[in-house]
Amino acid sequence: MADDRIAAPSGSTPLEAAADDAWWTALRRFTAARIGLKRTGASLATAPLLDFQLAHARARDAVHAPLDETRLVGDLARLAGLVVVVSSAAEDRQSYLMRPDLGRRLAPAAATMLAPHRNEAGYDIVFVVTAGLSAGAVQTHAGPILRSVLPTLHAEHWRIAPLVLVRQGRVAVGDAIATALGADGVAVLIGERPGLSAPDSMGAYLTWQPGAGTTDADRNCISNIRPEGLGYADTAFRLTHMLRVMRRLRLSGVQLKDDSERPVAISGN
Q1: Mind listing the pLDDT tens digit for each residue in 123-142?
Q2: Strand order in the sheet with 83-87
Q3: Closest to 227 measured CA to CA, from 191, 256, 204, 198
Q4: What are the CA-CA distances from residue 158 to residues 33, 83, 124, 176, 235 (Å)?
Q5: pTM, to two decimals
Q6: Which domains does the chain show, CATH number per domain?
Q7: What is the pLDDT of residues 136-187, one digit of tens each?
Q8: What are the residue ranges of helices labelled H in the chain?
Q9: How far apart are the first and last CA of the chain?
Q10: Coil, helix or strand for 44?
């Protein structure tokens, strides 16, 4: 096994090497990035190497982990009332991962399930929840965010469509749902691609009047939603603010900037 002791750099004393290690240790408090890793010769020391391998395994597992749909629907129903569950055109996880285009489209039966909930007077917003590439992210974070956002919007008399949970969905599947329900805007809460420091990060994608020609340039994204990233309180504040501005200006995407100007806490909340 490799020796994890740090050799003093050439021309420096062991005391100076220890001081250098203490400096990196202090700096790591401000980032989850892998910086100043210990080395043995030209290779990583054993401890950081094993940590990297564990993080990589967790990221891979997050992509394939199943969503506990029954529990999530129950949690969301307590917040939003009715939850409509539909599927994308991806029939299974393998199809979803190999064919991203299928996750952007609704299955044929979805239109029939959504039709009874269409409001001819229209909705201001529809919230869509889908596992994306990290089921654990939406399983954990979607409820706390909606718990803060929905009461605020209801108090402001927003017309909110039934919440929609999509199996094997990607961001653009929200466009078809908004169109089917007659909603002016859509907010898609989705598990983001797992990274080596965050296998459970969630994103919120906001789009005004989406349609067949909608592109990613027409969306706004709030990313890295998790207690260790953008905490729940800050996310709810930003999401609510962006929705208000989106509805008032009737636009989204590159033309809409986040001007909330609220300091964002580094630690989770």
Answers
A1: 999 999 999 999 999 999 99
A2: 83-87, 163-167, 123-130, 183-191, 202-208, 219-225
A3: 198
A4: 40, 18, 6, 21, 19
A5: 0.83
A6: 69-255 (3.40.50.11240)
A7: 999 999 999 999 999 999 999 999 999 999 999 999 999 999 999 999 999 9
A8: 14-27, 46-64, 69-80, 93-98, 100-103, 108-114, 135-155, 173-181, 232-249
A9: 40
A10: strand
